[in-house]
User: What shape does this take?
Amino acid sequence: MLDIVVIRRDPDRVRCSLRRRGLDPSVVDEVLRMDSEYRSALASVEETKAEKNRLSGEIGKARDKAAAAAAARPTLDGLAERIARAEERARAFAPDEAGSPLRALLEQMPNLLDDSVPDGRGEEDNVVLRTWGTPPSFDFPPKPHWELGETLDVIDFQRARHLSGSRFSVLKGQGARLSRALVQFFLDRANARGYVEVAPPYLVTRSTMWSTGQLSKFADAMFRDADTDLYLIPTAEVPLTALHRDEILDVDTLPRKYVAYTACFRKEAGAAGKDTRGLVRQHQFDKVELVWLCEPDRSFEALEQLLGDASSLLQELELPHRIVAVCSNDVGFNGAKQYDVEVWLPSANTYREISSCSNCTDFQGRRAGIRFRTAKGKLQPVHTLNGSGLAIGRTLLAIVENFQHKDGTVSIPPALRPYTRFDALRRE
RNA sequence: GGAGAGGUGGCAGAGCGGUUGAAUGCGGCGGUCUUGAAAACCGCAGAACGCGAUGAGCGUUCCGGGAGUUCGAAUCUCCCCCUCUCCUCCA
Assistant: This one.
């Protein structure tokens, strides 16, 4: 959630950010109008209450309290009525009142874009910053992972459909072991880089979900149990970021770096017909997620480190990939700045997202009430960052496709062999 | 699922319906002392929002959340939420 004070003081900055995201900047004027409505109502509430408090205090000090109360009665009744009226008016536009229209507008406003984010209308305008490795050239027609997976008997899409419907998969034998090896590999690397490993719940409450910004825009994208009102996490970003919700963190303990392996659950309702084959887009997938909580003036530097942590994994796995600066219209709702790491997929003959690293600045910290005390003693929301390190399914399919051989076997990247304990996928 | 206990400031922990925004302890900040540090001692310190110049200052609200009683509620009543303990069930 944006700081309403920023909207008030620097509306042009907010308008500009919205415009760059391809959104209508006129909400800013709506917000300003309601906000001034609210403040004038609030002023009259407070003024009237001050008067009432003063009278009450006098009654408390009077020797004959009953008599004083009786004497003040008519005045107090009048004040009470005025307070009730003004309060009603104030409440209608209060930014922190659940049902208020101002709140509704604020909730749907995305984070302010950082100036360094390139302009662009969509994915195609993302800027490639650097490319690592060379896409493999095959002297035979390379197969997509879903074919290789079935042939090797390590991925079973058909039985997954039978069990759970579309967009699910079953990993078997070496496939399941490869997946587990990747989890272990990623967690070990993150641990080595100072991330504290966390095994969080996969179900979280509505307020947890709200606190990290997932509920404003993506409510439809999540699985939820109606009885308990619990949500299945769409990413470990949610429990990791909200881990310190409503806490005041000692500044000496910042930055805090957390890593978690979890399953992730997404309805993918808006992606009908997209990526229907293979492991790319599933209702349930595994991911190792990296999250930082840090001081505001360090967060952009932290984003570079986070990106480095994510991309180094692909280097170790010898998977060709590139880093793109996500353009203004493509940066996520929570993010002020975002990099995507894209891995080469022979079946698509292009690069596909395997990690997304975002600096959410204070957007989530404010909602979630995660704060620290500045040197001057002021409380301030922390900045939060998150990035995949990495998506397990997409890494697995990238390995299968990039390291395939003519005979249908697949080599395991050397760095991973201590984890898999086998050096190739073969039909068993 | 059943029974009980409890939710107060960064933490711990008091609080007859009327200067209690809240004792006390720890922690924090500033100072005295010290070559420095520790200890000891003295002092300062809650949060959100609004007005104001992003200052001084002023005001309102806040003791889990919401309603109520009252001129006045942390303190009384009702509802909800959460946590803890015990029992039951269970990986």
